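Supplementary Text 2. Reproducibility record for the structural model of the 318-residue chain.

All settings were left at their defaults, and a single model was retained for analysis rather than an ensemble. We include the record here because the model underlies the residue-level annotations in Supplementary Table 4.
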Amino acid sequence: MPIPKTEKIWHNGKFIEWDDANIHVLSHVVSYGSAVFEGIRCYDTKQGPAIFRLRDHIQRLLNSAYIYRMEVPFTLDEICAANLDLVRVNNISECYLRPIVMRGYGEAGVDPKGCPIEVYLACWNWGKYLGEEAHRSGVDVCISSWNRPAPNTLPQMAKAAANYMNSQLIRMEARANGYVEGIALDVHGHVSEGSGENIFLVMDGTLVTPPLSNSALPGITRHSILTICRDLNIPVAEQIIPREMLYIAEEVFFCGTAVEITPIRSIDRIKIGIGSRGPLTKRIQDEFFALTGGVKPDRHHWLSPVNVTASAGVAIRT
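Retained model, structure tokens:
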């Protein structure tokens, strides 16, 4: 279904109307995929709307831009303030935010010299990425025939638009074959991640996830889960995971801003564990949603309340 409109989008320091957020068809980003972006959630907490790990997401956005030699004309603080303003201006209590840094209209060749850097921030209502029941019942997935790119081809630590052409192939193949999502292996045949999600599995009571060297994105939700596990004294390990280890795991789940924490009940039509959400997955889910919902104290300072007055200056011009 189409993205539900909100009133305003932030562009290069100013708020513009949703329908005015257009680019030229010959912008560098259209032909060459030269954009980096983020996905962030704003939760309607007991204390009011709050953006989850805003500074961490924007720092990763700036890191991604830096890797691709994109000079962003705004600071971390300015972009964070602008996201808070965006939610406030659109009068929305719970939403998904999409900051984008891209190369615009200028040169026609691969070399982006002369193409301006454009920064957009948008937000809208977006429900459960893999379906409303997915958090409880789990999803059926497959191992994709498409591998994640090798680290020396496209940098996987950057959340870049071009990387998601690979993600599209993984997701479309999975859906065409009757699955909700696909799991990609790296070029050596080891487990990497989903099309847009990190992955965890439970083996003998230990939570295991692939290291970033297996072409996995350094996910903010992934880091949050590792932190929560330390809080709850759940043993964790980052290690190489062979494909067959997925089949014999006690539990497997995806994590990410869009999917949050979504259990996997089968892989390649092989039942995982009890074939539904496992107890450790539920325990981590409960803690995660208690923190993002403001039910428990924000002990890690992950929530940025929207009602905090934004910094004056470029971030709030209209």
